[in-house]
Design a protein that fits this description.
The protein is built from five helices and 13 strands. The protein is an alpha+beta fold.
Length: 367
Amino acid sequence: MSSWAQTLSRLDAFSKVDRTHQARTSSGGFLSVVVLLAMAFMVTSELRDFLQYQQTHEFAVDADVQQELQVNFAMAVAMPCALMRVDVLDASGNRQNLDDGITMQAVSRRRAFAKLSGSHSAGLNGVADMHVHDIFAEAGRLRRVPGVREKGLAKPSSLASIGDLDDAACHIEGSVMVNKVAGLFHITAHGHAYGGAYVPSRMMNFTHHIDELSFGPLYPSLDNPLDNTLHVSDDHVSAFRYFISIVPTTYIDASARHLSTNQYAVNEYYKPHSDLSDLDGKPPGIFLEYSFESVAVTVREHRGSVVAFAVRLCAAISGLFVTVGIAHSLFACVTNAVSGRRPHVSRGILDSKHATTVHISAAVVES
């Protein structure tokens, strides 16, 4: 082996303590095991955090000049289709009757509500609780909305075709374009908000289950606050009101893909009535009052850098070593002080009883 290789093999950046100057204790061994376990836990935690996606939210004024917006809905109402009408009225005074542009199909109430009970709401959960990469994955899935049926099914044209009133229900589904201004999407009984044959109060029941309610492009797999929620009416004459605030949202994943949709927050209001005389001129029904926020949200997804991960990991491990070392030294000092024992000091060669004395004799050379 060359001298250069020998020098390199002896090179050590960290000085080692000679074994004769080391004191081995059971507490030190126990702490070594604890430190190793803590190091494994910290490395695992840091690695998990590094592999997870991070999200940042950016807020800006909505500059979209889009004139119209798509509204997607699918719900079951515990009333015959022939007794109801569906309308949209916006702040500009434009009114659309949607009876001919959507699907209204008679279904069995027992079938429509058999697996549902109580009244619940998703609140502000759903898309807001999902990571961006999960949203892209769900948006790419092709699945039908629960309960959605094929288009082109006509609603019953007369009361005679209703059949058993106690088991009659109606599934309403469709996607409609509305003006991008505040508006009111509502389902009412004939003869109460608009013209048509008068429907007696005993035939009304606005208990309903919302399968889907979203704004913008339809992504059936994405959950929204009112999706899969059941709302039960305690009386024949009642009004359900939903106040919806829509926020345009753009998701950008780590691959720079964009997904534009709309989130919304909702407040619910339910008012039962004993009879029609308690309505104060307001019709019974299901009313979804929506408005648009002036703020747009951009959600960006990213991962931390490798350099930051390495720095955090080194800082955590070194900090653990230093902290445990200081704690062990303090514990040993306190223990020795309380017990009156002298701390163990390893002795070197010079402290040995059999130390060798080297006598150096100098020879005087006479010139």
